[in-house]
């Protein structure tokens, strides 16, 4: 358990979800309100939530398939954040209901897709079993703090200019999430390269392997600290 608390990557996964959870929960709960605020009646707004959610479902399927084929996670997470940011910018800068409704589609596709990818990331990169369980628990717990903020921010007293202030805050959270994802991927890439270099250096590699074999014999589960372990970024 202590390995999870001391691993900066585990905290990174948690902060990444924190950034996305804000927009995930606020958009999920207030999508009908956002659409109704564009000038539609309540029953129309409820029906108009269907197309953005259908697009989001197709986007998730496509991104997961592409991520699996390319064996990449971070670029698609950052790309999803960028698409969502475009959606919020459209909501902020356009004036017609039809244009802003297009922005809703971009926001939904980016937010839902990014969350689908990031929630599976620790399961692929954190090893062994106890450390992975703690990492997933930390991701959900710290991430949901962002969700709490998200469900409180779309209030009537902040609805001026079609929720301009909440939309700007949502962009800030998405930028933060993209920065965290970029940091995680950069560190993982460099660490994979460092481990490849160590294993190619002969005597030093043999000594390190011997120490790790001894640790395993003593009952230590090296997990993702093993020199042969490679991160998926």
Report on this model:
- With 233 residues, this protein is an all-alpha fold.
- It has a single domain (2-182), classed as Up-down Bundle (Growth Hormone, Chain: A), CATH 1.20.1250.
- 82% of the residues lie in helices and 0% in strands.
- The chain has nine helices and no strands.
- It has helices at residues 2-6, 8-36, 42-48, 50-70, 74-93, 97-125, 129-153, 160-199, 203-217.
- The protein is elongated and about 70 Å long.
- The model has no long low-confidence stretch (mean pLDDT 87).
Give the topology, please:
Blueprint: H1 2-6, H2 8-36, H3 42-48, H4 50-70, H5 74-93, H6 97-125, H7 129-153, H8 160-199, H9 203-217
Helix pairs in contact: 2-3, 2-6, 2-7, 2-8, 4-6, 5-6, 5-8, 6-7
Give me some keywords for this one.
233 residues; single chain; mainly alpha; Growth Hormone, Chain: A; 9 helices
């Amino acid at each position: 358990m202590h390995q999870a608390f001391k691993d900066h990557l585990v905290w990174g996964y948690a902060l990444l979800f924190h950034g996305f959870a804000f927009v995930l929960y606020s958009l999920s709960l207030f999508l009908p309100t956002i659409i109704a605020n564009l000038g539609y009646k309540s029953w129309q707004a409820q029906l108009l939530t269907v197309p953005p959610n259908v697009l989001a479902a197709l986007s998730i399927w496509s991104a997961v398939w592409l991520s699996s084929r390319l064996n990449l996670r971070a670029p698609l997470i950052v790309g999803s954040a960028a698409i969502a940011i475009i959606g919020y910018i459209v909501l902020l800068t356009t004036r017609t209901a039809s244009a802003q409704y297009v922005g809703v589609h971009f926001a939904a596709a980016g937010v839902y897709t990014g969350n689908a990818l990031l929630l599976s990331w620790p399961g692929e990169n954190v090893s062994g079993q106890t450390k992975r369980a703690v990492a997933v628990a930390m991701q959900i717990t710290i991430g949901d703090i962002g969700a709490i903020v998200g469900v409180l921010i779309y209030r009537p007293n902040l609805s001026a200019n079609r929720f301009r202030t909440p939309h700007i805050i949502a962009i800030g959270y998405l930028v933060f999430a993209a920065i965290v994802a970029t940091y995680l991927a950069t560190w993982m890439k460099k660490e994979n390269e460092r481990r490849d270099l160590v294993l190619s250096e002969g005597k030093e590699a043999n000594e390190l392997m011997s120490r790790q074999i001894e640790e395993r014999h003593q009952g230590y589960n090296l997990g993702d600290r093993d020199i042969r372990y490679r991160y998926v970024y």
